[in-house]
Amino acid sequence: MGVLVVGTVTLDTIETPNKRVEDVLGGSGTYAAVAASFFVNPVRLIGVVGADFPQAYTDFLQTRGVDLEGITRVENGKTFRWGGKYADDFNVRDTLFTELNVIEDFHPVLPAAYKDIPYLFLANDPPELQLSIIEQVKKTKLVVSDTMDFWINEERDALQKTIERVDILILNDSEAKLLTGETNLMKAARTILRYGPKRVIIKKGEHGAISITESSYFSAPAYPMTQVTDPTGAGDSFAGGLMGYLASVGDLSEGSIRKAMMYGTVVASFNIEDFSINRQKSVQFQDIKARYNELQDTVRF
Ligand code: AMP
User: Fold this and answer.
1) pLDDT band at 139 (very low <50, low <70, confident <90, very high)
2) Is 126 a pocket residue for ligand 1 (Cβ < 6 Å)?
């Protein structure tokens, strides 16, 4: 079954304690679509780029089976650019700059074939854009969205309207606290459930992720990593892997969602081994399956 990813396609400048890279392929939509493409084909991606977006990046997305019909190229515009800098332990990231550029005037109209897609992932994007997509789709089975501190701070009202309309909200621990004003994570999760989503999945970086509904709680471990090169896109890869797996099994039971979180965790673990989506170029499905089995063992007792 198909997955539609709506998200940013960006040129990122990343500074880690060891290296600086400039204008590498990034974006919430990019990471999520590439992650989902390990499980389903094609993955449809809605986003916008400027005239400066390199052809090599477009070609790569195509080789991953990402359908780019929904990517708009603005010939007189500049691609969304984002810069981030990591502290020594990689747990703290400062945003150096966010240049929205072409995304500021992006009002996508979904191609007819995209409107019936059953699995919709609204990756981190302007909340009004996320809402306009929800309003255009017809027969979805599952709508999942992600957001980040930037939109919580800048577009709180619009974000609230989006959150009310999604089945699952994925966000990280500090964002859940920022969104709700709660300092206790479980209280924050309960507050988010009252906003509308049936489930909230909270990412906790190297400490894994938790899923909370009115009647269930599940804690997924992180894959134990010793080599971290660049954590950018880990959250989007997690969500993309989760969506891809769910679409591939076509089942939304609690059991499938838990397995999907484990698969998402594994895809994210590969992503952070290199800058941009470079590591994903050489990962095969059997590599994902092997780490999934290892991860399963870490919680068997
Ligand atoms: P993550 O590390 O999962 O938070 O994702 C980082 C990716 O999101 C980078 O490739 C950025 O280009 C992109 N990004 C950064 N800020 C935003 C924003 N405000 N809205 C959407 N995408 C963003």
Assistant:
1) confident
2) no
